[in-house]
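Bumping my old thread because nobody answered last time. Still need a sequence for this structure:
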């Protein structure tokens, strides 16, 4: 059970915004899957993956220091520094696109990517600015802004992607253009809210002479965390890049579409918890209760996600065939392999700010190097065999092992023993087992895909009802 009070209210605010945003993504997914082909999704997600890798480093990872700064004046100067570095990064990206766009497209067997790479600097400006404003809003505990930003991004993206496909049939360009418009609209709204409420304070606090002090004071972020983020983000997106290299955009489309569908419901809670947990963890270290807060969060996330993920693993191929069309069955096969490690990512990712709070970024970097090597190795070995499903399966198994290790290590760093963490995993697996019998029973009785999927959905609904009762009886999950 997560701690209550303000933390619970802040998580609820972000979950509400994320629920609406992700709900829009779920509702529009069956429409988009019939307007765009797997190859279109492959081009779009390759563009997005490159943009995300650069965007995460657009400010050299100085933005987490906005939360850690002792005074608001210092935080305002960190914010200004982040904007300045972000603009420089976008300029360097534009130069790189001008010189190497054809080579990049050829490397990933995606000729259609050449034109759209010109829009990469726009994505960098939007994403880099968002990350900086995100941490500023976290520091000020203005979580309503972040919730609104999520809704704006999702709504603008969905409307543009659907409208573009219905009117102009632009192929992958409709997906890319919609995502860019969503980014710009959402980040623009967040920037307007920040500077409307605190703009005078930020401008008044800016001191040019303090830039060198900030660069040195928080040098661990570019030295260690930037590399950690680069490795973690690159390795997370490495399936997109290497599947494109070894196979084709359609395989990339199956992978990215399937992984997106399974991560959407997880993001409803995970994103909100991560953003709220970071400042709470900083307070927890000073108060001496970081371990207790982290363990409660971990147990709660594991308890609400284990059974649904197990059910998705069982019915995924048939579910994708019914919901998105027969051409997306392969995506469901990929999801069957990916679901377990995505569950572990969901429960471990919100705990990652503990590296910042404990100022142990160097250890985080070592772990991310280890993860990068594992991910790339599994994908290259599978890719060289020329079997896409085998590649996805090998990648998923290696990721599962790594994520279990990551959960144990982070919680151990917070003061929680490994045996306690393993007991949590075993307990939730045993609790989830009975729900998996329901769809399997439907299949044995009917051998009908529709009833099979209905059994899985019914089991999921039953779990949610019982979990809601448990939460209400126990005083809440938060």
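Sorry it took so long. Here it is:
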């Amino acid at each position: 059970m997560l701690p209550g009070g303000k933390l619970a209210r802040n998580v609820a605010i972000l979950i509400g915004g994320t629920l609406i945003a992700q709900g829009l993504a779920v509702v529009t997914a069956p429409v988009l899957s019939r307007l765009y082909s797997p190859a279109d999704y492959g081009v779009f997600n390759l563009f997005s993956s490159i943009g995300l890798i650069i965007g995460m480093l657009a400010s050299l990872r100085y933005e987490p220091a906005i939360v850690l700064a002792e005074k608001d004046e210092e935080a305002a100067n960190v914010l200004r520094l982040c904007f300045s570095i972000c603009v420089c990064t976008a300029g360097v990206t534009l130069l790189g696109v001008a010189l190497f766009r054809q080579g990049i497209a050829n490397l990933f067997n995606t000729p259609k990517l050449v034109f759209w790479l010109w829009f990469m600097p726009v994505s960098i400006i939007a994403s880099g600015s968002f990350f900086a404003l995100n941490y500023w809003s976290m520091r000020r505990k203005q979580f309503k802004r972040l919730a609104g930003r999520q809704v704006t991004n999702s709504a603008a993206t969905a409307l543009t992607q659907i409208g573009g496909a219905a009117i102009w049939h632009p192929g992958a360009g409709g997906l890319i253009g919609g995502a860019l418009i969503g980014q710009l609209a959402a980040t623009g709204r967040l920037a307007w809210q920040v500077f409307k409420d605190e703009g005078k304070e930020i401008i008044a606090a800016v001191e040019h002479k303090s830039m060198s002090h900030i660069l040195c004071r928080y040098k661990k972020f570019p030295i260690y965390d930037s590399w950690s983020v680069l490795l973690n983000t690159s390795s997370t997106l490495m399936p997109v890049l290497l599947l494109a290299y070894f196979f084709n955009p359609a395989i990339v489309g199956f992978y990215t579409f399937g992984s997106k569908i399974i991560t959407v419901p997880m993001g409803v809670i995970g994103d909100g918890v991560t953003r709220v947990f970071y400042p709470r963890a900083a307070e927890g270290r000073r108060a001496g209760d970081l371990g207790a807060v982290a363990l409660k969060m971990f147990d709660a996330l594991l308890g609400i996600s284990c059974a649904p993920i197990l059910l998705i693993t069982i019915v995924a191929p048939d579910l994708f065939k019914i919901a998105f069309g027969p051409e997306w069955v392969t995506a469901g096969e990929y999801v069957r392999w990916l679901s377990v490690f995505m569950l572990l990512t969901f429960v471990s990712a919100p705990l990652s700010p503990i590296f910042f709070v404990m100022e142990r970024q160097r250890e985080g970097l070592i772990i991310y190097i280890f993860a990068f090597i594992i991910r790339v190795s599994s994908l290259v070995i599978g890719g060289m065999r020329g079997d896409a499903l085998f590649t996805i399966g090998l990648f998923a198994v290696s990721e599962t092992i790594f994520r279990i290790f990551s959960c144990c290590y982070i919680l151990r760093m917070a003061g929680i023993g490994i045996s306690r963490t393993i007991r949590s995993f075993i307990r939730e697996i045993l609790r989830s087992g009975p729900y998996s019998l329901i769809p399997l029973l439907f299949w044995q009785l009917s051998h009908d895909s529709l009833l099979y999927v209905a059994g899985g959905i019914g089991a999921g609904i039953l779990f949610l009802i019982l979990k809601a009762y448990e939460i209400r009886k126990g005083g809440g999950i938060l």
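Residues 439 and 455 are 4 Å apart (CA to CA). Let me know if any region looks off to you.
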